[in-house]
Amino acid sequence: MDLFRKCMEPVEKCLRDAKMDKNSVHDVVLVGGSTRIPKVQQLLQDFFNGKELCKSINPDEAVAYGAAVQAAILSGEGNEKVQDLLLLDVTPLSLGL
Predict the structure, then answer these.
(1) What is the CB neighbour count within 10 angstroms for residue 80?
(2) Exposure winner among 10, 14, 19, 45, fewest CB in 10 A?
(3) C-alpha distances in angstroms, 65 versus 2, 29, 51?
(4) Cβ distance 27 to 45 under 8 Å?
(5) Which chain positions lie within coiled-coil regions (predicted)?
(6) pLDDT surpasses 90 at 49
């Protein structure tokens, strides 16, 4: 159980670094392999006071979606909404969770 609780430390640190309160988070989007683990999902949902987790994006395809949007921005292709997007690589390397 302690190992699962350690998974929450990067989440807490991220909020601290961003000077945000967990109540100000509108959506919790899960991407990456560890997000398939039911216990991790439960801990996240409990941490965010029962907020429903967004699982509509396939965790394996999330990076590809972001890369496609970045390619459209860099190439100047796509509609105006795409050109107005700003993509930030929050965790460029795996957190190893």
Answers:
(1) 6
(2) 19
(3) 33, 14, 24
(4) no
(5) none
(6) yes
Please report the domains of the chain, with CATH numbers, ordered by start residue. Answer: 1-57 (3.30.420.40), 59-89 (no CATH)
Contact 35, 63 (CB under 8 A): no
Most distant pair of Cα atoms in the chain: their distance: 48
Q: One-letter amino acid identity for 66? A: G
Q: Report the length, in residues, of the chain.
A: 97
For the whole prediction, is pTM greater than 0.70? Answer: no
DSSP symbols for 6-59: HTTHHHHHHHHHTT--GGG---EE--SGGGG-HHHHHHHHHHTTTPPEE--S-T
